Amino acid sequence: MMTQLQFWPSLDFRRRIALPPTALLIWTMATWLSACSGTTPTPAATADASSTTDISGTDVNSATDGAIVNNWTQGYSIQLTFHSPVDKSVDGAVIKLDRDLTDKVATSFSFGSTHMLPPAIALAVQDHVSYSWKGNASPLDVQFNFGNLVESSANPAQCTKANSYPFKCSAPSMRVSFRSITYRSTCPALEGTVVITDWASVKDGYFAGHFSGTLGAFFSGSTDDCTDAAKSCTHPDQTVDIQGVFGFTLPAPDGQG
Length: 257
What we know:
Number of domains: 1
Shape: globular
Radius of gyration: 19 Å
Structural class: mainly beta
């Protein structure tokens, strides 16, 4: 079972939470002791500073009684741990991203009813990162697909309220693409959940939550067609463990100002 990390995005991009003096002191001491312990951390890939900001994944359990800290208003934090007997250069690699999407709403968000009958409303967020991997720029994509928030006669709803949604062959789902391999939460027999803590379906609504689990490598050029998931996710040892938080302020639906 994976241990969830708690992420603490920079103050410029998060809602501030005031910690009591005692909790703040405990957190400060824990951080200092960790830095002085002499323990060598697992080597992690290096982010391209021009497009990403690396985060430490600081454990703030002592300051929050185990609660997950999420103060994003337009962004997400994610830790990726790759397992790949096929590509030894990636096996064991850890990537940590802290991504503010405030200036990328137009290109990252798909929100509205385009290609669906009203009043259906769907939400997806996809972030394209140019990642510095062993000195070379490598594309890294992270996708949140929350599916249909509001249904219509032809489009059943998939994510209708704040709730815990286990990984399965439908939305809400997650996808990560790195080094020409796509990893999906919709592959069979994967463990994980997307937890929606704040749900909304209108402009300026706040949509937030956290996630953890394992994504499987998907070897197909097709989209999330669950009918071919079993035959397309044929490398069970090639996976990526994910965990993190997200918080999005919804833009105007597609086609509206």
